[in-house]
């Protein structure tokens, strides 16, 4: 098994709530500087910066897990991890018409910047990315799986968008095999039983990207191995 220092929930400057200096190049450079070996950039409801993130990860020798953070109709935050950038981009395009038709107001919500590897702005996303989609949690879970991805409820024990806070329970019929838990807050043991527990930074600024403190064990260094690990779940204690 290979132990990889990881941070698999990071927002780039495409997310309006993230700092503008959270460019793909800066994120990957900071991750490498801190000694991380695997990262995922999971912007809100869009994957448009992932091609550049992949280029930068390759340049810094980082394993990249393509991902997004999707907002369900119930306003639950759901991470979707994919094996390839192409799968994530396809899902991002699928999701686009399911988002509310609202224009971003950068002066109020923040910029939504698409970057190249040299920190040049190549586009700005006009549609507001932080709204809730018109797809329910169960629908999104099914669609992500059908498209080859793995759905993981984000920060289940934190904020109004955490699944346990929002719904008050872990839906057993959705058969989640992994959940993200916010380390700084308590979380009931029962919802975690039999699931892979992920800890990440949910970084919106460079300083919050994790230090080399969280490891993920994989049989090989690949996004496919990471997704397979998530799909297997963990033995119930």
Please tell me about this protein's structure:
The protein starts with a strand and ends in a 5-residue tail after the last helix. By secondary structure, the chain is an alpha/beta fold. It has a single domain (2-232), classed as Metal-dependent hydrolases (TIM Barrel, Alpha-Beta Barrel), CATH 3.20.20. Strands 1, 2, 3, 4, 5, 8 and 11 form a 7-stranded mixed sheet that branches. Strands 6-7 form a two-stranded antiparallel sheet. Strands 9-10 form a two-stranded parallel ribbon. The radius of gyration is 16 Å and the shape is globular. It contains 7 helices and 11 strands. The protein has helices spanning 24-34, 50-60, 85-95, 106-109, 137-146, 163-166, 223-232, and strands at 2-10, 38-44, 63-64, 67-71, 77-81, 113-115, 121-124, 150-153, 178-180, 196-198, 215-218.
Number of domains: 1
Q: Give the strand content.
A: 15-25%
Return the CATH architecture: Alpha-Beta Barrel
State the fourth-level CATH superfamily. Answer: Metal-dependent hydrolases
Distance between the termini: 22 Å
Supply the number of helical segments: 7
Which structural class matches the secondary elements? Answer: alpha/beta
CATH topology: TIM Barrel
- CATH class group: Alpha Beta
Helix percentage: 25-40%
Tell me, rounded to a whole number, the average pLDDT: 96
Which stretches are low in confidence, meaning pLDDT under 50 for 5 or more residues running?
A: none
- What is the number of E strands? 11
Based on Cα principal axes, name the global outline: globular
Sketch the topology as an H/E string, one letter per element.
EHEHEEEHHEEHEHEEEH
Q: Give me the Rg, rounded.
A: 16 Å
């Amino acid at each position: 098994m290979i132990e990889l220092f990881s941070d698999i929930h990071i927002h780039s400057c495409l997310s309006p709530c993230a700092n503008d200096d959270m460019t793909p190049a800066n994120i990957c450079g900071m991750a490498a500087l801190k000694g991380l070996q695997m990262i995922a950039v999971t912007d809100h409801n869009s994957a448009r910066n992932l091609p550049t993130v992949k280029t930068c990860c390759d340049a810094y020798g980082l394993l990249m897990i393509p991902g997004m953070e999707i907002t369900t109709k119930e306003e639950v935050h759901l991470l979707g991890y994919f094996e390839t950038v192409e799968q994530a981009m396809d899902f991002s395009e699928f999701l686009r018409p399911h988002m509310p038709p609202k224009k971003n107001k950068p002066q109020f919500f923040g910029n939504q910047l698409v970057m190249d590897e040299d920190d040049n702005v190549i586009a700005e996303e006009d549609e507001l990315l932080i709204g809730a989609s018109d797809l329910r949690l169960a629908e999104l879970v099914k669609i992500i799986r059908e498209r080859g991805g793995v759905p993981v409820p984000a920060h289940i024990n934190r904020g109004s968008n955490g699944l346990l806070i929002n719904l008050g329970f872990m839906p057993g019929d959705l058969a989640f095999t992994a959940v993200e838990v916010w380390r700084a807050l308590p979380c009931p043991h029962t919802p975690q039983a039999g699931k892979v527990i992920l800890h990440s930074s949910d970084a919106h600024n460079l300083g919050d990207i994790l230090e080399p403190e969280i490891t993920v064990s994989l049989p090989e260094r690949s996004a496919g191995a990471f997704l397979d690990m998530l799909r297997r779940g963990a033995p119930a204690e």
